[in-house]
Amino acid sequence: MELNTIHQRFLECKNVCTDTRKITKDCLFFALKGDNFDGNTFTQQALEKGAKYIIIDNDAYYKDSQTILVEDVLSTLQNLAAYHRDYLGIPIISLTGSNGKTTTKELINAVLSEKYQTTATIGNLNNHIGVPLTLLSMTKDTEIGVVEMGANHLGEIAFLCEIAKPDYGYITNFGKAHLEGFGGIEGVIKGKSELYDYLLSHDKQIFLNTDDTIQVAKTKSVKTISFGQKEEKNQITIQFINANPFVKLQYHDETISSHLIGAYNFNNISAAIAVGNYFKVPDSNIKKAIEGYTPANNRSQIIKNGSTEIILDAYNANPSSMKVALENFSNQEHRNKIIILGDMFELGTEAEKEHQAVVDLVNALNIDKAVFLGENFNKTTCIHPKATFYTSFQAFKEAFNLESLNYSLVLIKGSRGMALERVLGLLDEQ
């Protein structure tokens, strides 16, 4: 079946689904394959649950006109998304980076939503499947799309750009994330800069944070919409005021008080302001959107449990994000500061060095008690007088004592695989 015909079938459907557990009536179901499953085998089940059409790539599961046989389901999903993006013809803003992608995306979406009908990446569906699903969730009512792009290998951002075809782009930063896949920090910079490469080759524009020297160096040939703290260098000037504990800043005549902790979130907020300014969102609405945004999903959440105040930043971690989080935490005013840190993943041969660097930083900071979880942290050398190490969460759970956290400010941070949000469950059990 031709792609334009598949697109007509898609327009007849209410939404797209790739998981039979989430089938809704009159959806378009893509029978994707995974390491441990074959979506083709769920064809009958998807039909029984109400799917309007099913896209398959195994003719053994063909039923009737409701099943659409293609050569490869994943490629069809990606090609259909690119076709639909062209069909809509709306401005697409894409962003990537080592840290802060999702927070920045949500802030940009909040600001633009004050004036436009927007569709943005849900959660962190930012890979070769998530980006197509985001594009296919856009409708004729969507005026601007905001697409987050993630990658852990060279070439992935370039591939996603060919699907999303962004008109504008932003890179949050270049940090020590996915070093194993990228082969080091230079690989990270090259991989993330594939977004710049696409925008340059298609004569599109980027939002440039001039406070980031790497971004400045990488964008000398690209059309830029510049923002930063130095008025003489930027089209849009935003001034940092403080982060005690929440980021406060000045933009035009507006003083904006956010609900985001850490000076590192200043750049994320600034990017959203710059995008809003460019798309002519009124200053008062930009202020409303930023001040109304509250972080969730284990990203810098502030949680109070009795006498304990917790900064839950357990969605993910890498050496760069760990460093800024610890430095910010050390600067907080509190009489008893405790950290609970979990291993950082996907660091390859750099794992031992980077975990030791985190421990060395902890030794030097104003932190009263440190708890380290995971095999990598257990290989480090630590001189902190009140540091404890556990090889697993289970070992920590068995030794856990709620009283040790009373009247404390606690930072919880680790890679997604450590699932350190489980610490909250321990508090609830006490």
UniProtKB/TrEMBL annotation:
Q: Which GO terms describe its cellular component?
A: cytoplasm
List the InterPro entries.
Answer: Mur-like_cat_sf, Mur_ligase_C, Mur_ligase_C_dom_sf, Mur_ligase_cen, Mur_ligase_N, MurCDEF_CellWall_CoF430Synth, MurE/MurF_N, UDP-N-AcMur_synth
Gene Ontology BP annotations: cell division; cell wall organization; peptidoglycan biosynthetic process; regulation of cell shape
Is the DNA damage keyword given for this protein? no
Annotated ranges, domain Mur ligase C-terminal: 299-416
Q: In which pathway does it act?
A: Cell wall biogenesis; peptidoglycan biosynthesis
Print the keywords alphabetically: ATP-binding, Cell cycle, Cell division, Cell shape, Cell wall biogenesis/degradation, Cytoplasm, Ligase, Nucleotide-binding, Peptidoglycan synthesis
The entry's ATP-binding residues are G97, S98, N99, G100, K101, T102, T103
Q: What GO molecular function terms would the record report?
A: ATP binding; UDP-N-acetylmuramoyl-tripeptide-D-alanyl-D-alanine ligase activity; UDP-N-acetylmuramoylalanyl-D-glutamyl-2,6-diaminopimelate-D-alanyl-D-alanine ligase activity
- By its UniProt entry, which Pfam families does this protein fall under? Mur_ligase, Mur_ligase_C, Mur_ligase_M
Task: Tell me yes or no: is Cell division among this UniProt entry's keywords.
Answer: yes
Q: Localized where?
A: Cytoplasm
Q: Which reaction does it catalyse?
A: D-alanyl-D-alanine + UDP-N-acetyl-alpha-D-muramoyl-L-alanyl-gamma-D-glutamyl-meso-2,6-diaminopimelate + ATP = UDP-N-acetyl-alpha-D-muramoyl-L-alanyl-gamma-D-glutamyl-meso-2,6-diaminopimeloyl-D-alanyl-D-alanine + ADP + phosphate + H(+)
Q: Which residues form the Mur ligase N-terminal catalytic domain?
A: 14-82
Domain named Mur ligase central: residues: 96-275
Its EC number is 6.3.2.10
The record's HAMAP family line, in alphabetical order, gives: MurF
Q: What family is reported?
A: Belongs to the MurCDEF family. MurF subfamily.
Tell me, what does this protein do in biology?
Involved in cell wall formation. Catalyzes the final step in the synthesis of UDP-N-acetylmuramoyl-pentapeptide, the precursor of murein.
Task: Output this protein's name.
Answer: UDP-N-acetylmuramoyl-tripeptide--D-alanyl-D-alanine ligase
Q: Which organism is it from?
A: Bizionia argentinensis JUB59
Q: Which gene encodes it?
A: murF
